[in-house]
Design goal:
Helix 1 runs antiparallel to helix 2, helix 3 runs parallel beside helix 7 and helix 5 runs antiparallel to helix 6. The protein has one domain. The chain has 248 residues and is mainly α. The protein has a two-stranded antiparallel ribbon with strand order 1-2. Strands 3-4 form a two-stranded antiparallel sheet. It is 69% helix and 5% strand. Strand 3 and strand 4 form a beta hairpin.
């Protein structure tokens, strides 16, 4: 299907671009601040708190922006993915896809054991393990999916027309752009990871975003993408802990 862009395309580009780079800049500032100051004060067992601190800004900003659009255009929160019932939510499909998307994380852990890539694992303490598991199984998917699928993808789908056919599936342009931005958002990992591992994160995350975005495109509910995100990341972390000899 040919791509058709509405007249507001440059406003759309400016809005999404501004929000994206704002959050990336905030993420870098938070990381540098914690790396230079807080990590010298906090014990290693509390280093997982950084994950929560760095994911609060995109969550809050996306909720504020969604509320703004809902109020301005007399919309509903359900139009932005906050739908828990009605229609097929693809829950079973989302869970199966989550299992499949946990494989790349598991393979990366194996690669780290072979010395092919560097991998950051939580401090081998109960608080660090529980904090990391709680984050990956709950807050990670909620914060990132509300922003990238709930706000970014929905906003693009409301303002851009057109589809891209990949294999046998038709992906909305908004789905593709949101997936690419989701992949690029992991570029910030270069601050704490090797270039090779960062590149793998960007590529894998972009394809994951494409899959989660398609589920959202078809269901218009954030439940499926959140399940995919939390379960795949959670399983990957559990596998990493089980494979790490430091925990045995």
């Amino acid at each position: 299907m040919p791509l058709r862009i509405k007249e507001v395309k440059w406003r759309v580009v400016f809005t999404i671009g501004s929000v994206f780079f704002l959050l990336e800049g905030m993420g870098c500032i938070i990381f540098v601040f914690l790396e230079c100051f807080a990590f010298g004060i906090w014990p290693p067992t509390l280093s997982w708190i950084y994950n929560y601190i760095s994911h609060i800004p995109p969550l809050v900003l996306s909720l504020v922006l969604i509320q703004y659009h809902v109020k301005r255009f007399n919309g509903r929160w359900q139009d932005w993915g906050f739908r828990l019932k009605g229609g097929n939510l693809w829950l079973k499909t989302s869970f199966i896809l989550a299992l499949l998307w946990s494989i790349p994380d598991i393979l990366q852990y194996f690669a780290s054991l072979l010395g092919l890539v560097e991998w950051m694992t939580p401090s081998p303490s109960l608080s660090a393990i529980l904090g990391g598991l709680l984050f990956d199984w709950t807050f990670l998917g909620i914060s990132e999916e509300i922003f990238f699928r709930g706000f970014v993808q929905t906003y693009l789908m409301k303002n851009i027309e057109g589809y891209v056919r990949l294999v046998k599936w038709d992906f909305h342009i908004g789905t593709v752009v949101a997936a690419l931005l989701f992949g690029l958002s992991h570029l910030m990992n270069i601050l704490s990871m090797s270039p090779l591992l960062t590149l793998s994160y960007i590529v894998v995350s972009a394809f994951f975003g494409l899959t989660a975005g398609y589920v959202y495109q078809r269901t218009r509910s954030l439940i499926g993408p959140i399940i995919m995100h939390n379960v795949s990341s959670g399983i990957g972390l559990v596998a990493g802990l089980l494979l790490d000899p430091c925990f045995w």
